[in-house]
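Here comes my example:
=====
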Amino acid sequence: MQQNDHAGRISILLFFASMLLGGIAAYIYGKSTDDILFIVFYAGAGCAAATWLYRKERDAQLLDYDNVYHSRRFFVLYFVMILVSVILAYLPADIWPYTVIFLILGLFSNTVTGLFAGSWLLLLTMFLSNSASMGYLFVYLLSGMVALVLFRRMDEGFLVTRPMFVALLLLFALLLGHHVLFEKETLTGAMVLLPAINVFACLVLASVVLNYFGRHVVRRSNDMYMEINDPEYEMMVDLKEHNKEAYFLAIHSAYLAERIAIDLDMDVRATKACAYYHSACKALGGEEGASAYAEKKGFPEGAIELIEEYENPPATGYVSKEAAVINICETLVRMIKSIFNKDKDAKVDYDSMIDKIFEHHWEKGDMNLNNISFGDMTRMKKLLKKEKLYYDFLR
């Protein structure tokens, strides 16, 4: 709730700031009174729509990477982009770096939000400009869309050379094509100069942005997950030395939860981290809580949030699929270990045990909030029943 209130206040500030910037710029650029009023209205309405879309995507957990946890970062960048968009109207249209502006907005939100926000800013610049023809709208909109697609969902390898080359080559070709095909100009060396400056500027800006993004967003989260999801991580080693029962419960539960998370296209890394550490973080966190301790240890935001939910679930049941899956896997491992602790040679009907666990959750109704469908539950039961040989190792 605090995050929503915080984002709401910033959205209101951005709304008024965009109208003020748009009005001042329109006045400075010599627009008529009617044009000034239109630009003020457009600036406010467009900013409100863009921030509303961002917040809807965030609340629905549809933002890319870790952007759902960093609303302030997006809003600061968005304000800077608004300021840049009104300044660009004073410059030649051939050097507008809108390819990078689209890219920045998309990387720090998601493709849909980046496309909408970038398009709104491009139109604002077009309305303010006294010289740019409508052909530039096509040039920068297309190059921006292509850049968003090429750089969508960067992986651990973070390979940027090829998509950057394609995006900038397309930008250069579109700018030259605009002059030759739409403006009917003759291709000359002077005509090439400004598009070349634009491409070079975009190359430098994109390199800076992607370097920051790779270091502080993509690789930071990936590197930390690789470290903590290693059974030899310091916390797991300490747990093994001081509480072997809890250690093996975490190991076996994480194995099963990871298999299900992969199959159901869930957040695999956060699921595994939560299965490993939620109880240890709760014990070590004391009064501060499990999530506070996980944050202190530098866990990724996704893992911290899941650990917090798992250790402090709502009365109506877990909200995320990941937490519900971990709970089911832990319940199953506890039941099997309990039987084998009493009799290592006991014969266990694993299928019946798994069915009873799911029947209990279904009758209790504690899966209503996490969108686990009947089909998902059927798939989960099938996967767990395939692990019979693995359960025998728990003896």
Notes: The chain has two domains: 2-225, 229-392. Residues 46 and 120 are 6 Å apart (CA to CA). The longest helix spans residues 189-228. The radius of gyration is 27 Å.
